Amino acid sequence: FILTHLEHILQEWEKFAITLVPASQKANQLMLRDDVKSILQTIAADLALPESDQHQAEKSKGKHPEKHTSAAAHGTERLASGFSLVAVMAEYRALRASVTRLWEEAHTKKPQPASAFNDLIRFNEAIDQAISESVESFSNAKEHQSRVFDTILSTSPDLSYTFDLKGRFAYANRALIELLGIALDKIVGKNFFDLDFSSAAVLQGQITQVIRTKKQARGEISFKAAGAEEEFFDFTFVPVLTKRGRVEAIVGTARNVTERKALEEINWHKANYDLLTGLPNRLLLTERLGQTMAASKRHKRYSALMFMDLDNFKPINDTHGHFVGDLLLIQVAQRITSCIREEDMV
Length: 346
Prior knowledge:
Elements: H1 6-17, H2 29-47, H3 53-60, H4 69-80, H5 85-107, H6 114-155, E1 159-163, E2 169-172, H7 174-180, H8 184-187, H9 200-213, E3 217-223, E4 231-241, E5 247-256, H10 258-272, H11 282-299, H12 313-320, H13 322-337
Antiparallel strand pairs: 1-2, 1-5, 3-4, 4-5
Helix pairs in contact: 1-5, 2-4, 2-6, 4-6, 5-6, 12-13
């Protein structure tokens, strides 16, 4: 009956099962249909074989002597396709209902021997076995996936964490635990205020904004652990959305950018300060002169600009060498700097 009505059964199954397909797998509906077709063919082949009393007893207890590899593959593939375990179970319910309804319609018009009802019982046992194997493979693959991700997160140098909708930590990876120097059970359930973060107000505000707007947020904060130097982190908060678009959690990551900021500071200093005297160079002078002129105009006050020339500098270089000339420039820079106010610039 299954093989004869295979196409009709699949059409019946599709009417309901199509509602379970994740949006990302809409284009692969034919592949998903072929998976179910393979399961039905496996069940049909099993029903075509004679069944001993021992096999019947084992199946009634859910202990099928042989594995349905198609059902096991089904569970693994459904996880990879983004199905939930509930959706996988619903698929089998739809399949069972389709076969049972069509079988009843075909057999209610004339009396059937007891063996026909026995076949229906065997079909339900086969479906139960397929469900068991599919769920087992789904769960095993899910656990494997979880172990892989846990390993990735625990060994990552970046901070990884999640929050509930009240802005409290729900998870923290090893890098964050080591940074805070606090056990995981002392972090979970706490917010940034509870953990005495200096930027707690900013961070909790960002989380609230992500929940409200459903958009990710980025920023930079500094953090100073007890007995350690101040460090800087780039952070990202991303909303986790349900299929209906509701925020159910917040995922966060942070990367230590202390070395990068230090390098940027060094490069900025090199670009804006004279390497010999340590004074601002022409680039920084131009920038600050523009700011000073704008401030003078805004506040209607004067600002002074003075040019100084160093007489007879060339003969010193020519007579005593550039090394002595450099020492003279350094000395002049220090003397002039000692004579100005803090807000002035040489």
